[in-house]
Structures are given as C-alpha cells and as structure tokens.
Amino acid sequence: MQDFQLSLDTIFRRAEQYYSDKTVYTGGPAPTLTTYGEWAERTRRLGGVLDTLGVSSDGRVGTFAWNSGRHLELYFAAPCTGRVLHTLNIRLFPDQVVYIANHAEDEVVFVDRSLLGLFLPLLDRLPLVRYVVVMDDLPAGAPGVEIPVDDRFHDYEELLAAASPVEFHVQDENQAAAMCYTSGTTGNPKGVVYSHRSTWLHSIGVLTNAAIGLAETDTVMPVVPMFHANAWGLAHAAPMAGASLVFPGPDMSPKGILKLLQEREVTLTAGVPTIWQGLLPLLDGVDLPKLRRIPCGGSAVPKALSEAFRAKLGIPILQAWGMTETSPVATASHVPARYADIPEDEQADLRARQGLPLPGVEVRIVEPGSITPLPWNDEATGELQVRGPWIAAEYYRPDDGAELNTEDGWMKTGDVAAIDQFGSVRLVDRTKDLVKSGGEWISSVELENLLMGHPAIKEAAVIGVPHPKWDERPLACVVLEEGSTVTGEEILAYLEPLVAKWWLPDAVEFIEEVPKTSVGKFSKKDLRTRFADYHLG
Ligand code: ADP
C-alpha cells in the first residue's frame, strides 16, 4: 500500500472540493453565514496572514475564542501551514491562562472582541506573544472594549483582506497539529499535543456509527467548546463528512441554543450534561423534528436526564466518554442489537453506561497501582486504562515529570470502572472523587445519578467528608427544583431501597447551585473546600 500521510490538509481539501456549497453559520449578536467554499478561501488567506506575521514554521498559534466560523478557519490554517493550534480555555482562572500560554510559548493570540475584556489584563504577563489579532464578533457600532492603539494589535478582517491565499502541504503526519491543556482539576494544567495523524484517525473514529455517526446530511451544532478538548472532534469530523455546521458564538444561553436548534434545523448537537439540564425546562411543547442525535459526555449522563429528553423529544441522549488526553472521544454507549428487545427502562440503564471503545481504541481495568488486568464481569472495579492511535503517550513538558502511560504502554485515566463481559465500560468514579468509608469505596457518581432521578432534585453532587470512625462518609449536596419542598429525611428514604445501607449519605445539605468547572462540570474540589470542616452527626 502507498505510504500516504494522514494530515489535516487532506480533510481541508475534501471540504473545499466536494462540499463547497455546505454552510457554516455562527450565531450571537452579529451572525454570519458562509459556505465551505468561502471558508476554504479565507482559511488559505489566513495561512498567508500567519506567514506575514512571521509566526515560526512550527510556532504555537493561540486562540481565545467562542465556537465560530473564524475559529474553524484557525483550526485548519494553523496546522495546515505546519503551525500548532493552541486553544486557550477562556473560562480558566487568569493565572492558569497565563501559565498555559507561556508554557506553550504562544507567539500570537487570536481573540474574539467580546472576550477582549477578559484577555487584555493578561497581556502584560505574556512576554512571548508578539501579536494579538482581534476577531470582531460584535455588531458594528456596538459598545465593547476598545482595541488598544499599539503595533501588537491587528484586526482579523483587515489582515485577511490584505493577504494572499497559500497552498497547504504537510510533510509528516506525525508533526504536531494542535494542543490543549487539561482544565486542571488538580495542580497546574497539563498540555496534550495532537498530531495530524491522531486527529485524522480520531475524526474517522468520530464519524463511525460506533461513535457519533455524523453524515453529510447532518447539520451539526457543537455546543461543546472549541476551546476545550477540540469540540470533541466535531470541528474536524464535520468538514470531513461534508456536514453543515452551526456555531453558537458567544450566546451559550439555553434560550439561544434552543433558537439555533429550531431556526437552523440542527440534526446533531453535542455538549456536557449541564447544557442539556439547562435546556430541559424550555422543551415543554417544543418540537424539534430534525434533531436526531445528542452526544453528551465530559461527566456522567444521569439516566433521568437522558430519559427526560426521550420523553420530551423522542430521542435519548447518547453518552460518550473521553478525556483531553484521549483526543477526546474514546467510548460511546449505543444499545447493542442483542438488547434491542429488552424493556425501554433497561435500555436506559445501558445508555447510562459509558459503553464500548471506538474502533482503534482498547480498554482494560487493572488493580490499583498495578498492571494486572481485572476480569470483565461488571463487578470487579479498577483503574480504567486505554490505548490507541489517538491516546496521548505523554504530557507536553510536564512540570512534575508525571508519567501518563504504564510501562506496558497503556494510558492511566484516573477513572475507576467496571467492564461487562462484552466490553462495555461502566464508570464508577474518578479516583479522587470516590468516598472512602471504612476502607471500602462508595461511588459518588452512582449516588448522584440516583439522586438526580428524584423529581424534586435538579442537581446533586456527593462528596466525602471526614468522619472519626469511618475515615470518610458521603455528604449529598442537593439543589432543588424551583418551588419544590422536600426534606433531607425524605431524600434519604427515597435512596434507601436503591443502594446498600452503608452507601446512604450521612447527611443532605441543600445548596443554591453546584459549583461548576471552566467547562461546566461539577466542581467537587470547590464543594470539598466549602464543606471541609463539616461535622457529621
Ligand atoms: P478535566 O475535567 O480533568 O479537565 P477532561 O475535560 O479531559 O479533564 O475530562 C476528563 C474526565 O471527565 C474523565 O477522566 C472522566 O472522569 C470525566 N468524564 C468524561 N466523560 C464522562 C462520562 N461520559 N461519564 C463520566 N465521566 C466522564
């Protein structure tokens, strides 16, 4: 067979040649609509801009931006000219953004105008950033942060208008295409570098029906941010498939999302569970006849949430599991044909699992601290480890020298899981979120899923709090649906028949809101800090 390089310029050319009439829509206060044909021409010009700005041949190109058509231009112009796209997470703490941009040695940062207010205060601490290119996503004349008059600042559209389109040709599929830092639930964020090859293969993986299964006939709306974990590969997979794209731009509100789903006739949309939780109350009496699939992951998808979508829209949520380190999609949870005839409620239990690895990815669970595989009987639990062509082998220059892989080449995920006889993964918890009671582990995820099945409970997070006898005991932190009244005793009585006695939380605390991380996941770290001195009893 030919030795053909799996590089992103081949995806780019495919969209340019075969799907030039398909569209890319960006919402927000200044919506734009382009075709892949126009996008391709602009992306080639953007390659010219990077040359004119003198960005090194393998230099890091930072982005500080919402999901948008311009961001998609950067997604291809940087890697297809040999540079490395570095998506900065706009929701991280300022110190972390500064750390990441300096660690990656970003030479230029492309910033949405609506985010300038967040970005400008950081600039003095970014000595390597030679240029800031502002992408104006606000309506003409709208008030916004003024662009400083300074040689470092440029306007995106002005640069593009003055540039000439360039040819793309990437020599080596193993060269770096993009990088992303984990959102750092512990310690400093750690960088993951994706190669052209890994991104190419991940895109194919995402396209398969074993994963998200998007097709040319789809209109895809990634709500999952392009600034974290590559929008789950959708920004590469959609151009590869020739599917039209809809980007929310700066408006990520449930109302804004619903409007785009309706008006743009979106068929496939993806985001973390909190996004769909937020949309749920707006769905009464709403018909979305075109919508056919809602991939969701980043944290466990509660059965109750998926079932609520099935009840209201006729489609359950499709759960997928992955990490920044796994590109990110590694498993997806389709109900296998062998279970097609089981009752819907049991199928919903299967959908609450993380599911089968994508073609190319392999999974195992091991005894903690060892590389001894555990049996696939859905009972034994151990650290989930994965390997495959889009699984990271190491972090990018880690401060603490952290080893990501085992000595026999499997990636340590830090997640605890069981695997059933057919290989379907069921995530029990993150290692650091397990509650350790008298030497036995309690799954916070499972308790949360059950709690969120209670009609009066909107959100629930379970954390371990210190206990003199048992070391740690579970505390349920609960947010009630508006207008609901239910007592802690009633909640515990609801849980009692559903779990082993010693799993029952020792107490229930009612809180206003579960704190969220930069990408909308429950931040247990913040809850643990808040309840560090909690006294049980
Ligand atoms: P971080 O949250 O550490 O910044 P990522 O965004 O890469 O990093 O998140 C990866 C983690 O998110 C996984 O290790 C896992 O704990 C959790 N996760 C992702 N998808 C799922 C899922 N479908 N169910 C449960 N947990 C998930």
From TrEMBL:
Residues covered by the AMP-dependent synthetase/ligase domain: 13-396
Keyword Glycoprotein attached: no
Instruction: Tell me the InterPro entries matching this sequence.
Output: AMP-bd_C, AMP-bd_C_sf, AMP-binding_CS, AMP-dep_synth/lig_dom, ANL_N_sf, ATP-dep_AMP-bd_enzyme
**Domain AMP-binding enzyme C-terminal: residue ranges:** 446-521
Signal peptide limits: none
Listed A to Z, the keywords are:
Ligase
Tell me which NCBIfam families the record gives: PRK06187.1
Q: Mind telling me which PANTHER family this protein's record contains? A: LONG-CHAIN-FATTY-ACID--COA LIGASE (PTHR43767), MEDIUM-CHAIN-FATTY-ACID--COA LIGASE (PTHR43767:SF11)
Q: What is this protein called?
A: Long-chain fatty acid--CoA ligase
Organism the protein comes from? Kribbella qitaiheensis
